[in-house]
Amino acid sequence: MSGKPKLHYFNGRGRMETIRWxxxxxxxxxxxxxxxxxxxxxxxxxxxMKMVQSRAIANYIAAKYNLCGKDLKERALIDMxxxxxxxxNELIMSHTFQPAEKKEQHFxxxxxxxxxxxxxxxxxxxxxxxxxxxxxxxxxxxxxxxLETILAAEECKPDILAKFPLLxxxxxxxxxxxTIKKFLQPGSQRKPRLQEKDVKRVMEIFH
Amino acid sequence: MAGKPKLHYTKGRGKMESIRWxxxxxxxxxxxxxxEKKEDLDKxxxxxxxxxxxxxxxxxxxMKMVQSRAIANYIAAKYNLCGKDLKERAWIDMxxxxxxxxMGxxxxxxLQPADKKDKHLxxxxxxxxxxxxxxxxxxxxxxxxxxxxxxxxxxxDIHLLEAILxxxxxxxxxxxxxxxxxxxxxxxxxxxTIKKFLQPGSKRKPQPxxxxxxxxxxxxxx
Lengths: 207, 222
Prior knowledge:
By secondary structure, chain A is an alpha+beta fold. Chain A has helices at about 15-25, 55-65, 70-95, 105-130, 140-155, 165-175, 180-185, 195-205; strands at about 5-10, 30, 45, 50. Chain A has two domains: about 5-65 and about 185-200, Glutaredoxin, CATH 3.40.30.10; about 70-175, Glutathione S-transferase Yfyf (Class Pi), Chain A, domain 2 (Up-down Bundle). Chain A has a four-stranded mixed sheet with strand order 2-1-3-4, covered by helices on one side. In chain A, α3 runs antiparallel to α4. The two termini of chain A are about 35 Å apart. Chain B is about 55% helix and about 5% strand. The longest helix of chain B has 27 residues, at about 115-145. Chain B is globular, with a radius of gyration of 18 Å. Chain A: This is glutathione transferase.
C-alpha cells in the first residue's frame, strides 16, 4: 500500500476538497486516514513528504500530473483563474458559518460576485478562444477548479448559470471526463456540503 | 517600451509588498502607478484592466496579471527562485504559505476595531512564536545550511525575511528565542539586491499610518 497519497482531514469539504478534486481528476487513488488532527490540516502524505498548506499541496499535485499548462505564461493564466475561483469558493464555503442575521446579505454577496465578477470572466475566456478548456486547449487544474466552483455555486442557487451558456456547456463537457465523472458519482471521495448541524462540531475542531 | 514591470496599487504595503520584495531580490527594476483615490481604481476597472476588478495588478511580459499569488508565482519561477525540482518547489510553497498566513494577520491590524487590537496583536505574537517561527528555526537547524531550501536563495528565504521584519515591527524582540533566525535575518539582509531594497530611497513601503488607512478605506470601501 505504499505510494498512494494519504489525506488527513475531518470528514468534510473545507480546504481539502480542491485537493480531492485534483487527485480524482488526475486519476490518483488515495488512502483515507480518518480524522487524525495535527496543528495544521489539511495534511497529505505524498511521495515521502508530509505536506501542509492546501495551496502548496494543490500546486504539487497539479504540477506532478501535468495540470499546470505547458510553460510559464500558461501557468500564469491558470494561476490567475484558480486564485480568482478560490476567492469565490472561499466566499461560498464561509456562508454556512455566517451568523443568522448576516446570512441573507452574505448570500446576496455570493450571487453578486459569482454573476458579476467571476463567471463573466470565464464565460468570456471560453467565448474568445472557442476551445473546450480554459487554457492552452488542454485540460488543466483551472478546468477542475472551475467545475468545482460552478457546482458549489449551484448548491447556493441552482440557476446561477442562467446567463452563461458557455459555462453550462463547459460544466456538462467537463463533468463527462472519465476521471471526473467517476468522482461525481456516489461512493467517491467527494464530500457533501457542510450541514448546519455539523457547523458547531467543525468550529470546535478548528477554533 | 518592453521591459520594466509596472505595478498598480496604493502607495503602501498591502498585498503588493511581497511582490516588490521578490522583484527587488531578483534585481528587477520596476515602475509603479499609484492608486491615490477611488477614481483611479474606477478608471482601471472601467478600462477593463483588472480581470476580477481587483488590485494588485502587474503589467509584465505583455500580461496584465492579477491575484498576488499568481503574480508572485510567475516572478519567482521566471527568476529561478522556485527550487530546482517539484519537491524543492513543494517545500518552498509550504514555507511561503506559512509566512503568507502570518503576514496576512499582521496586515489587518490597522483594520481591527480599537477594542480588538490588543487581542489580535497578542494572537499574532503567539502564532509567530509558537506556530510559525519554530518551523523555520527547525528547518535551518536540521540541515545547517544558509538557505531554507536546496542550499540556494529562493522565494522562501525572501518571504521569511519580509515576515521577520514585519513581526519585529509588532514586537522588537520577537526573535529572542530563535538564534538561527536571527543569524538568517542578518545573512539574507546582506544579499546585495536585498540590502539595496532595505536602504532608504528604495521602493520598499513603510508601515501604514492613520492617514494611509483612512484613504485605503475610502478607495476600497472597507
